[in-house]
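cron nightly-structures :: item 1 of 1
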Amino acid sequence: MSLFKRVSNILRSQKQPPTTAAVGNPLEDARVGDIVNVDLEEYVISGKVVYFDRGFAPHRYAYYLQSGKNIQCLIVEKGRTYDCFLCSFIEGALDDPNDVPTRLELDGDVTFDLEFHRNDVSRTEGNTDFRSGDDIIFWRYFGPDQRFFFLQWQDGKFVALEGERTPGNQIKFLRNF
């Protein structure tokens, strides 16, 4: 074996393999301060709520999106695929989570039927309506024309949202470094 071949083998053996950065899913990994493009409108993520069961991986994310004075909410539900909903906040009043109906009528026009509800734990970042580490009750209703209604309760406070399903491939995230 020649001297040059030995040296080249030694150098090759000490070369570090290229490290590839773990590529996560931006629908789960977006952070406060990142920019999101939804339906050709750009927003800044001003808050994030992560929903999970104790001891299990997160299964729902709510991103508070701000464009000027306009604040929207992007709800991402993780299952076999990602269900994404772009929602607007709705004002209303309920006093007790036990009084939440299975059928909602909104402005006398639209009727929403309860699809499911569940109890989760929250982890929050930035400006949100909720606290980290507390239990949240979450209701999802479906209505006509692919419209959805979401109701959330934590420690005496209700937050209501109405929105439509948005394909995940139409949501683009730009990471803020």
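cron nightly-structures :: done
The chain has a mean pLDDT of 86.
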